[in-house]
From TrEMBL:
HAMAP family: LysA. Its cofactor is pyridoxal 5'-phosphate. It comes from Alkalibacterium gilvum. Pyridoxal 5'-phosphate binds at G255, E297, P298, G299, R300, Y397. GO terms for biological process: lysine biosynthetic process via diaminopimelate. This is Diaminopimelate decarboxylase. Specifically catalyzes the decarboxylation of meso-diaminopimelate (meso-DAP) to L-lysine.
Amino acid sequence: MNKNTYSNRLMNNMKVDDLNHLVIGGVSAVEIAKKYGTPVNVYDLTLIKEKIKTFKNAFSKYENLTQVAYASKAFSSLALFEVLAEEDVSLDVVSGGELYLALKAGFEKSRIHFHGNNKSYEELKTAISEQIGCIVVDNFYEIVMIEKLVNELNVTIDILLRVTPGVEAHTHEYITTGQADSKFGFDLASGQVDQAIKQIKEIENINMIGLHSHIGSQIFEVEGYEIVIEKLLQKASEWKKMYDFNLKVLNVGGGFGIKYTDDDSPLPLDKYAKAIIRSVRTHSAANNLNLPEIWIEPGRSIVGEAGTTLYTVGTQKDIPQIRKYVSVDGGMADNIRPALYQAKYSGVLANKVVDLNEEVVSIAGKACESGDMLMWDVVLPQPKPGDILAMFSTGAYGYAMASNYNRLTKPAVVFIENGNDFLAIRRETVEDYLKLENSIKNWE
């Protein structure tokens, strides 16, 4: 097998150099592992910027304004937020911590949207005091808190109403959020949305500019978006007559699928945009509505494929006729998705990408859990201790969901662009634990 025939196993902006080493964004993955240690999360900034450009170009065909709001729950860091601010995108935050980081990064406040099903009073107070772009209101208790705050602070805030429209995406049940039985948003079928609109219309300092809906994640088709757009625009027409509600913004959420393995067949990003635009045009006209602004919230589809995690191979256990386990120096503490969602990944050995001596192995993490498995039954060159495993498409919900289980330290995060590398987040150390710890010996 030569480099050309092996290239179909690689992800975007990757190649194999003359040393048979994996190269990401012009930088050797082996050199990154040597310089920063492992595990290490590597992000190709060029690919992130290309994904943003694709979305923005596709939505620029729309007659009204659009916003591409990065869903920061996928991965957040000060450096990333600074990059996104330069790329002129908006930002979806879901906690006071993400909001704090965005403000520290100098993100334009008017382009910050605050989500969450259980926002605290203090979180809402910060968001309203800072006069961020909008709050995506999720429940009735939140309406009460916002009313109290806008009156107390004597300000006006824009909001979107999050609607659960009863549309289920074709995806894993744990990451499907548009169906009626969901912790998120106001249920459409039961009349909760009507009740919320009537309640909000009575509050002078809350300006309801639109609707929000998110139907799930890892979506490989456009029908779900088309169905929810049709349903919401029909209802918006009814609410205009009943409550004088003027729909200015329609936020259709995110969920655009990416490639983790060869089994995944995501659509080109502009295909999602074209379908959304077409559907909004069609159903706005059918319901005698002015074209609303279109907002989307891609997270995984911006950073997922841009991320690669590098691990060092350690011990092995070969069970004849059953399975060969190969352990690495990370696992569920830095990537919980395989254990939580049964997520599948692909990868290569970064220090010997092309090798005829291949075998089927399963990649185990080092946590004291039998479920700590990163990849099952993958074909790799015969792994040896010290080899560098590169696991692809780990840019979303890896570091963001990392933990210190077994007192493992969180990995470093490195950005790569134009052949250069930058340490965006340093590796956590065991000494960092002590910053939060108190010795009982000091208890008097």
